[in-house]
């Protein structure tokens, strides 16, 4: 939770840009949260960005053992 709060504080001033840019949403809040959760975002054996699957191209595939977890990012929306 501490990592999520830190990311929230970092992205707060960039809310307008995050609403317009899905890639920035991946880079600014999602990547740091994945790293805080223990995912090595720089190791393609664990995290693969923009991987083509039979049902589309999710923003991330998280690889764990024989599991492939699809993660789809969207533009930032505030409450």
Keywords:
single chain; 79 residues; alpha+beta; 3 helices; 39% helix; 16% strand
Q: What is this structure, in a nutshell?
A:
The protein has 79 residues and is α+β, with helices and mostly antiparallel strands. The protein contains 3 helices and 3 strands; from the N terminus they run αααβββ. The radius of gyration is 13 Å and the shape is flat.
- Discrete helix count: 3
What is the percentage of strand-forming residues? 15-25%
Helix content: 25-40%
Structural class: alpha+beta
**Can you summarize the main beta sheet?**
3 strands, antiparallel
Number of strands: 3
Radius of gyration: 13 Å
- Our measurement of the CA-to-CA distance between the termini, rounded to an integer number of angstroms, reads 19 Å
Overall, the morphology is flat
Tell me the strand order in the biggest sheet.
1-2-3
Which whole number gives the mean pLDDT?
86
Helix-strand string: HHHEEE
List unreliable stretches of 5+ residues.
none
Explained architecture:
Strand 2 (60-64) and strand 3 form a beta hairpin. It contains three helices and three strands; from the N terminus they run H-H-H-E-E-E. Helix 1 runs antiparallel to helix 3. The mean pLDDT is 86. Strands 1-2-3 form a three-stranded antiparallel sheet, with no helix packed on it. By secondary structure, it is of the alpha+beta class. It has helices spanning 2-11, 15-20, 22-36, and strands at 47-49, 60-64, 67-71.
């Amino acid at each position: 939770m501490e990592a999520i709060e830190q990311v929230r504080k970092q992205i707060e001033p960039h809310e307008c840009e995050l609403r317009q840019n899905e890639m920035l949403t991946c880079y600014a809040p999602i990547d740091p949260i994945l790293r805080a959760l223990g995912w090595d975002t720089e190791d393609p054996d664990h995290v693969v960005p923009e991987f083509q699957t039979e049902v589309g191209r999710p923003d991330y595939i998280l690889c764990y053992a024989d599991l492939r977890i699809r993660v789809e990012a969207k533009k930032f929306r505030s409450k």
